[in-house]
Write a structure and sequence with these properties.
Blueprint lengths: L31 E5 H11 L4 E4 L6 H7 L6 E4 L3 H15 L3 E5 L3 H4 L2 H9 L4 E7 L15 H4 L6 E5 L5 H13 L5 E7 H5 L1 E4 L18 H13 L3 E5 L2 H4 L3 H11 L3 E3 L24 H9 L2 E5 L5 H4 L10 E6 L13 E4 L2 H19 L5 H13 L14 H12 L4 E4 L3 H9 L8 E2 L10 H11 L5 E6 H7 L2 H7 L5 E6 L4 H10 L24 H7 L3 E5 L5 H10 L5 E6 L51
Parallel strand pairs: 2-3, 2-4, 4-5, 5-7, 6-7, 9-10, 9-11, 11-12, 12-13, 14-15, 14-16, 16-17, 17-19, 18-19
Antiparallel strand pairs: 1-8
Helix pairs in contact: 1-2, 1-7, 3-5, 3-18, 9-14, 11-14, 12-15, 16-17, 16-23
Length: about 625
Amino acid sequence: MAHEPISAPPISTPPAGEQSRDGLPLDPTLPVASLTGAQSLVRSLEAVGVEVVFGIPGGAILPAYDPLMDSPHVRHILVRHEQGAGHAAEGYAVATGKVGVCMATSGPGATNLVTPIADANMDSVPMVAITGQVGAAAIGTDAFQEADIAGITIPITKHNYLVTDPADIPRTIAEAFHLAATGRPGPVLVDVAKSALQARTSFEWPTSVDLPGYRPVVRPHGKQVKEAARLIAAAERPVFYVGGGVIKADAAPEMRALADLTGIPAVTTLMARGALPDSHPTNLGMPGMHGTVAAVAALQKSDLLITLGARFDDRVTGELSSFAPGAKVIHADIDPAEIGKNRAVDVPIVGDAKLVLAELATAVAAEFEANGRADISAWTAQTDAWRTTYPLGYTEPGDGTLSPQHVIERIGAIAGPEAVYVSGVGQHQMWSAQFVKYENPRTWLNSGGLGTMGYAVPAAMGAKVGRPDAVVWAIDGDGCFQMTNQELATCTLNGIPVKVAIINNSSLGMVRQWQTLFYSERYSNTDLHSGDHSAHSAPVPDFVKLADAYGCVGLRCERPEDVDATIRKAMEIDDVPVVIDFRVHRDAMVWPMVAAGVSNDQIQYARGLSPEWDREADSDGVSTDDPAAQKVIS
């Protein structure tokens, strides 16, 4: 399939001949006979429609920062660490669906972007990272602040470029943005030698992008769609296994239409929260290691998995050999490399999820009309029974301290489904996925594949820049927060009023949970001394004082009866960032749980408690009188 040309950006056309402060035409798509490579780079960013760049200047990239100062279209936000720039670009991209952009200098500036680049690669986030490089003549000499960032990032980018000829800059930027945004989205690195930025060149914006080796298939094959429809109509225990690709393709409306049409139970992965509203009657919640009993059970006992933009991640499947053993598999994905990678597939469908879902709905309706469908009423009754019998829940601490689940649940209830929620990684991430009700796509941001601590604050910053009218909550752990909280300075100085809820259990909470369960409560190096549990005379740091030092409003909440009032106070503040130190019970755990590497059949909904079975043969004919079978969801 041929690519459509990249069009000019959505900016107003200036009066003929009008020039910007740098003496160049305001319309960035017009050719220019003589300019520097740095000016060419900035004009290329304007031409592709970039609104904001997150970055930090340095020696090799410095030539680009001078014309950037004159750009009437591109806003630059000076972050405090390059990792923050990368995660901010990710947050902007996920919240808006646009390509996020970050910029850094050579050497350590570029290598500080490696973590967010890897994060974007794992979670299919469209991002372009622009880095300066030492002059072309010095490349390979171990020059000051030289690092082979193109070589370093080959395994974690969709593609990358090293530009040494300034004439190549417009084409390279056009290609980079096209690659980042099309097919399976992902990060693209553009490394530009300082000599190319300083040299004189001409500028001509390409009218189209021609990449002969890059032809992502977006429209599904009709024969495969019809075969999928046939399996759906014949299945007695089908399940929609909905992944983050549905959100990346902006296919939530099509997903809901197909769920309405079929009434088939659905699960939404960690990356797909909001792809189907939590309030939808078919939505069983999140599957996987900390998924709902109903979601995990439905996958395990299904006879057909209709997999849409998901990749059979180990955190969903558990022990792969025992995952959904009786199910046939339909797997639709934009990336053909994902199909069959982890699980054998009966009907592969390569294509964009939005088109796949639309065509699948048409084919399924036609199949139902022509040949009828299997009766799934017993199956939907069973999945509803699991959902009713084993709902998500938690036990309030007996000592009067704060329940972290209650805090997060109340944030979700008070801020509502139109807010954007961004989490770090760990227990608070799982509780945020479980206890906030997601009704809309692009309202839940987290680091799923890489599991990057420190993601929340800068990603929330980027999300707020992209969606300034939305309320943005960063729900962070005290460990994650201390990795990137310097970006609060960026938020304060740039008028980015995010709200940060620190779920402070004075610990690396998820690691502590594993130490409790699997290491005989030997808490090796997981005490952060950041709460009342500290052995010190005072917590280190004091998060309220830290917030104040960064120009934010700092609040603390330690009593259950103060939770709602504290959240509402934060909601009333719109002009500066707010940081709340929620001092929570340190021994709270995330349940349900499937231990790493074991079968999903061994799910526990609380410590030592697994679902009970009916004392009769299950739907696969396995007798649940067998003690071994009683450990299995039926």
